[in-house]
Amino acid sequence: MHAETYDLLTIGRSSIDLYAHEIGVSIEQVRSFDAYVGGCPTNVAVGARRLGVHSALLTAVGDDQVGDFILAFLRQEQVETRFIPRKPGRRTSAVILTIMPPDRFPLTFYRDNCADIALDIADVLAAPIDRSRIVFFSGTSLSRDPSRTATFVAAERARIAAATLLVDLDYRADQWDGPHAYGATIRALLRMARLAVGTEEEVRAAANEDDLDMAIACLLTTGIEALILKRGAHGSVVCRPGGAREDVAPFPIEVLNVLGAGDAFAAGFVYGLLQGWPLARAARMGNATGAIVVTRHGCANFMPTLPEVETFVAARGGW
After folding, report:
1. Which residues form the domain of 273?
2. CATH number of the domain bearing residue 297
3. Alpha helix locations (H) across the chain?
4. What global pTM score does this model have?
5. How many Å apart are CA 279 and CA 47, to the nearest integer?
6. pLDDT per residue over 160-219, tens digit each?
C-alpha cells in the first residue's frame, strides 16, 4: 500500500482537446487542430503541479489511444497517475474547440459512453483521499452515475479526513437533464465543502436564481466558508456569509483564448491556499495564472510555472 501524501487530489473529467489551429475563423474554415489535454480537474492538477504542488488525479480513461495520450502527458508533467483506472468498453472523452477572439470560443463535447463518468466507489476507495491536503471536485462529475455517487462518497471521505474540500461549479448545460437537476445536485455537494469557485453564470445556475446577489447568498447558506466569484477581465470577488465581499484586482491583458482560464485560476488559487495565504491573496494568484493562460492557445499544456507567474506579476506592478 502506498503511504505517499499529496498536496492536491483532483477528481473528475479528462479529455483530449482538439483546438483549431487557425485562429479567428469558423469551424467550416478550420483545416487542422492541435491536440492538448483537457478537462477541468485534469487542467487544475497540471496547473498546480507546474507551480510546485504535489498533485494526484482521479479520473478514468478508456482502453484506447486517447487514454494513452492523456496518461503520457500527465506522467511527463509529474502528476500522479497511479490511481487512474482504465475502463474497458468506454471511450476517453474528447472536445473540439474553435477560437474566435475576443468573445467567441465555440466548443463541442464528445462524452457519450465516456470513461470518466464511469468512475465508481471502488475507484474512490483506492484513491489517496485521506492523504491529500486539498481535494478538488468539479460539477460535471455529478451529471451522471456512477460518477455522481462516487463523487459524494469521495466528498464524505475527504470531510472525515479533514481535507479542504474545494468545489469548482463547472456548469456544462449540455451534460445535464436540466438546470434544476444541476442546481439541486451541486448544492448538495457544497454542503460538504469548505470553498467554492465559479463564474457569474455558474453561480446563477447553481442557485437556480437569475439575480446574482440572491444567487450568491443562496450558495453561502450551504455552509461553505466562502464563494470565490471569477469575473474574468474584472478579476474576482471573495464572497462570505453575511454579505461581506472583497474585490480582488485583475491583471489586464490581451485575450487570445478564454477557455481554460477558470482552471488556471483554480490552480493558482490552490497554490495560495497551500501557502496559508488569506483568500484574497490566493484569489489574486488565481487572477495571475488565469490571465497568463488566456494569452495562450490551450490550457493544461500552457499552464505557467511559478517563475513565469512571478515575472508576469512583477512586470505589472507586483501583488
Report:
1. 6-11+40-55+121-314
2. 3.40.1190.20
3. 40-50, 65-76, 121-126, 147-160, 179-190, 200-207, 212-220, 261-274, 279-293, 306-314
4. 0.96
5. 19
6. 999 999 999 999 999 999 999 999 999 999 999 999 999 999 999 999 999 999 999 999
